[in-house]
Amino acid sequence: MRLEAFAIKERDKDFRIANSVMFREECNKLSPGRYRITIEKKRNNKSLQQLGYLYGCVYPLSRKLLLDAGWELPTIEEVDVFWKSRFADQEIVNRHTGEIMIVPGLKRNFTTTDMMVYVDSIRNYCSEFLNGYIPSPEEQTEIEFK
Fold first, then answer.
1. 82 Cβ contact list (under 8 Å, min separation 6)
2. Tens digits of per-residue pLDDT, 113-122?
3. Alpha helices for the chain (secondary structure H)
4. Which of 90, 88, 95, 78 is nearest to 119 (CA)?
5. pTM of the full predicted structure?
6. Domain ranges of the chain
């Protein structure tokens, strides 16, 4: 059984557990034994709307711009790898040798903010270097693919 509680720490206020009474009741129901309690900062993961915008608008439009610029990217999956290698790379360090290896980041680990930065980086690149415009998610547009 896994118990989870949410807590809040505000500036100049004490740390508090939301619904602490219910959490304590659930803890008291546990069988005797040793338990580990871990506290980690909650983060908001990217949303389905963000992924829909990325795959439904940003990737298809940027693919067209990349094709016009001479890049051979026949599928959206290859466009995904292209953009991740450009804007979501992560460095992995071998602590024994000091060697640094660069691997593409994983969108599954993106927070809402990470996804916004990633998409804005693609949009800005397309505007600056590919002479194309990708509408923001708030814009009402009708896209016709041929």
1. 66, 71, 73
2. 899 999 999 9
3. 20-28, 48-53, 59-68, 76-87, 112-129
4. 88
5. 0.67
6. 48-129
